Amino acid sequence: MNSSETILVAPLNWGLGHAARCIPIISALRESGYSPLIASDGIALQLLQKEFPTLETIELPGYKIQYAKKGKHLKWKLLKDSPKMMKAIAKERKVVKQLVKDGKIHGIISDNRFGVYHKKVPSVFITHQLNVLTGKTTWLSSKGHQRIIRKFDECWVPDVEGSPNLTGKLGHLKKPKKNVRYIGPLSRLGKNDLPKKYDLMVILSGPEPQRTLLENMLFEEVKHFDGKVLFVRGKVERKQQQFEHLNMDVFNFMTSEELEVAFNQSDVVLSRSGYTTVMDLAKLEKKAFFIPTPGQYEQEYLAKRLKKLGIAPKCSQERFTIERLAEIDLYKGLTHFSASQELSSLFSLFQSKGEL
Asked: Which CATH superfamily is domain 6-185+339-351 in?
């Protein structure tokens, strides 16, 4: 393998989850001798720049995805914003075409960025949603997503193929597609046996305004928690900020190394039910309580499924009170699924189309 081969890694800027789960892939690429070129926008790009300060990055057009203040309006808000999203996809297609034309990239890994692919370069799409849940329009959104996936050489699903698994019907089709590969859950974190420092860890992420709405609500609720709390706000900013407030140690963000220590030092976790968080908690074999983002069918499905399986309790944002955390004791917690293969074995794809 030529050490000059550059692989474009482009996660969607939708909270921190897509960028976070690309961290182990970027690390594996480097260990395999490739040169990752990171491409994203907003807080996703900022997170990866902090994790990999020596790597080259480029800013892609933002999809400008924002949530509605009320969950029931989310689908229509996304529909209204779709023209802006389509313009961004067209712009990122131009960026990719120019990179290929200039001979700057030899492979592509797109985490849910629809326009980041090229027919002359081995292109991978990462998603845990082969089925995209949107209520009554699930069949339509799923077909549309599967049509996008077909444009890529491979689709990597960060889950196990068989049962039990983490994604359920999100990541598993009745009729498997030829280009779909299950690569095992992705997590940048590792389980360590550390002394407990916190009785509760609160970790937030996701697009605005819902992240702030949950932060404000939990800040009030957690004051009544009987124990020491670590509160990670999920705001990636230029400088890390830390302060103490009543029973809380509050951080605006943490690096992967800091998060790994924090998770391992915490007894239980309170968070959104985003899939990257679920994968992290499974790797760490933690007990958790989930508050799905209002109106986001995927998170609501994951939280409902984990509750039904007796793994973790959940509650809607409107009905949550700190007393609900007592329910955690009634559930068995998340279980780690070993990766089905070494990530480095996936990279042989980038040799398959030959030199440009």
From this structure: Glycogen Phosphorylase B; (3.40.50.2000)
